[in-house]
Amino acid sequence: MLTIEKGIPIPATTARKGNNIELLRSMAPGDSVFFDAPIIKKATRFYRVAKHLGVKVIIRREGTGMRMWRVADETYGTAGAVDPARVTKVARKKPLVIKRAQPVPKKVVKGLKAKATPSAADLEAQKKAKASRDKRYRESKKAVKAAQAVGATNA
Fold first, then answer.
1. Domain final residue, candidates 27, 45, 79
2. pLDDT in tens, 73-124
3. Is residue 5 pLDDT above 50, yes or no?
4. In a domain, 51, yes or no
5. Domain-embedded: residue 151
6. Three-state secondary structure readout of 7-65
7. Domain tally for the chain?
8. How far is CA 98 from CA 90, 92, 95, 104, in A?
9. DSSP string, 63-124
10. Distances from the Cα of 122 to the Cαs of 24, 35, 75, in angstroms?
11. Cβ distance 35 to 65 under 8 Å?
């Protein structure tokens, strides 16, 4: 059972610690880390942690692995890019809007549903049932005519 306690102060928040965070904080701009093929997934984790901490990094494929560099704020995004002095117009006239593909609506039209083709035995059974219905119909017609004929003679 849980007990309610009163008057206990809330502790101050502590800084997060972890291998990724400590490594990123210890890196200076220009330092790099290489991730071999077996641990290549760690590169994406480091990138995510760096974004969360506000540390500027660039990741590129290199041979069979990936390399991550810590960069200074002013060089962020320009590593490996075109010389900024040569770029005359950077801004777009309209913002780039990425549209998601819309799901295709499924149209259900009566009479167009695919039906399974009946087997030969099913077709034979359907023919027998139809013949039986036709025979009963003809017999009932004969019975009605006979009753009408008997009624006409009695009247």
1. 79
2. 665 555 455 454 554 555 555 666 666 666 655 555 555 555 667 788 888 9
3. yes
4. yes
5. yes
6. CCCCCCCCCCCCHHHHHHHHCCCCCEEEECHHHCHHHHHHHHHHHHHCCCEEEEEECCE
7. 2
8. 19, 14, 10, 18
9. TTEEEEEE--GGGTTTTTS--GGG----S-SS---PPPPPPPPPP--TT-S--PPPPHHHHH
10. 73, 66, 77
11. yes
- Per-residue pLDDT reduced to its tens digit, 31-80: 888 888 888 888 888 888 888 888 888 888 888 888 888 888 665 555 45
22 burial (CB, 10 Å; 0-12 / 13-18 / 19+) is exposed
Kindly state the tokens that stand for 123: 């077709």
- Is residue 34 one of the residues assigned to a domain? yes
Quick check: helix, strand or coil at residue 132? helix
Domain assignment of residue 54, given as a range? 19-79
